[in-house]
Amino acid sequence: MSPVLILRLASQAATQSPIHLFGSISGIVISVLFLRVFYNVYLYPRFRSPLRHLPGPPLGHPVYGQFLNIINGEAGIPQREWVKQFGPIVRVVGPIGIERLMFLKPEALQKVLINDWVEYPRPAFMRKILSSVTGNGLLTVTGNEHKQMRKAMNPAFSLPNLMAQSDMYYGPIEALSNILRTEIDAEKEPNNGKVLLMYEWLGKVTLDIICETAFGYQSDSLHNPRNELAEAYERLTSLQTGPNMARFIAVISVPGASKLVESEWAYNHRHWFEKFEHTRHLSSLLESMHRIRNVSAAMLREKMRDSIVPISDSETKRDIMSILVRARKADLDSKAGGYAMSDEAMMDQVLTFLGAGHETTASGLAWTLWLLAKDLKSQQKLREEVTPLVGLRDESLRLMPPVPMTFREAGKTDYIDGVLIRVINTWKELWGEDAEEFNPARWLNLPPEYNSVFSSLSFLAGPHGCIGKTMAIVEMKAVLSALIANFEFEPAYAGQVPQPTAAVTMKPLDNMPLRVRRVK
Ligand code: HEM
């Protein structure tokens, strides 16, 4: 409908009865809205955007742009192909005309992730998704609030603190090794080993480790298959598919919807969501989050109780939450007016550690085992030596980064946007022609273009980079060395091609079945 027609309708409306007047005004409002949407979605990216001349794939579907290709493809792979075709700056149009730019050069990354990080926050849609699982913790706060929170938390993740925790890993690791042995020995032909869903077992061992190291809580999900926390996370991670993610983004884009999804009211009325195809997964999400919040609240209550006991063994507790609770108490007692986290913020840290700290490490380990299962020579070499372990860990995290991509939103007029972890990690211009192959030896002879901050971004970099990086590395080394020393891993069947989910993390869709044998 043209603007002239709208004006004509408006002048007619002035001479009509109230009912007709209402109808005409509604018609005008709908027409204006329609024109606005048509301009944003169709006309702007094609004919008006200052970015329209930049190289990139075709604009794609008139409404979804390239979004369906991205969400249905393997995480980061469509983008990797575009970078090969169009170079280090690529423009991609997503749903409803949203434009994204991908930058790969270190100068751009330095600007977005480090120099101007406050002006490049995680975009609102991403923070809304994360806050539905991790609350308002480090992953979702921005600017000054983030600076204060991170400053308060950094000491708890220092190397001496983490090293003091390393003995906490051995209980769960020993338990996992014993379970795998028992499973294999129960087979008719134990020498042939057994096909086991390794991602599931790794999810349990990393959950038990994070509960112990972050909260001093023994979840023991390895021995207790009905463990409430493990079950809730299993359900939550199974929702991580591209189409579910697309539906979730559509729901939380409605103003007020993300607050509603986090409310008690939504949990109490979750059965309503089951009635519609596009909201069905929300019911599972609400149910899982309710359980996770209950267990988290109980863990936190225990920590708070510890902190008011005058002198006890609580002073010596080395888990992250005990350290944070003690630091907060010292801040409050000192009355110096320093930053002290509120009770809600403490609760959200519990959710953040659980959400960010176990599925990531489990995916990292599962993909490492897969790459080793396909490369028996490296597997054997690793078994024989301890030193190549470092190179191997870096290589598997480079090739299959558990968090394959992230985004930043320009908070000022500027043209820098997406940060595609997996694309950068496997960029041929940086890593050479074999960039997409698994080759642990490359870490012994790095290419001249290698940049220690920006060439492998599995943990990102800068003030929003992963606070748990050292913890994850120590943990992965401990789990991997115990598993490789005691077991051999092979693909479960000929032609096996595991697929990662295309959502937040690289969880393997099939839970990574592998044939596991005891080392002779
Ligand atoms: C292999 C394991 C891990 C990988 C690959 C990983 C990767 C990442 C990445 C890429 C980010 C940045 C996300 C973004 O900006 O969009 C991040 C942030 C974060 N990670 Fe990790 N992570 C791992 C393990 C952990 C662990 C064990 C913890 C804690 C217990 C943790 C806690 C966090 C937190 C709190 C943030 C937000 C940091 C901030 O914004 O200040 N992560 N992680």
From TrEMBL:
Cofactor(s) the protein needs: heme
Binding sites annotated in the UniProt record for heme: C466
Gene3D superfamilies: Cytochrome P450 (1.10.630.10)
Listed name of the protein: Cytochrome P450
GO cellular component: membrane
Keyword hit for Chaperone: no
Entry's Gene Ontology molecular function annotations: heme binding; iron ion binding; monooxygenase activity; oxidoreductase activity, acting on paired donors, with incorporation or reduction of molecular oxygen
Pfam family, one: p450
Subcellular location per the Swiss-Prot or TrEMBL entry: Membrane
Segments traversing the membrane: 20-42
Keyword set includes Amino-acid biosynthesis: no
UniProt keywords, alphabetically: Heme, Iron, Membrane, Metal-binding, Monooxygenase, Oxidoreductase, Transmembrane, Transmembrane helix
Family of the protein in this entry: Belongs to the cytochrome P450 family.
Pathway it works in: Secondary metabolite biosynthesis; terpenoid biosynthesis
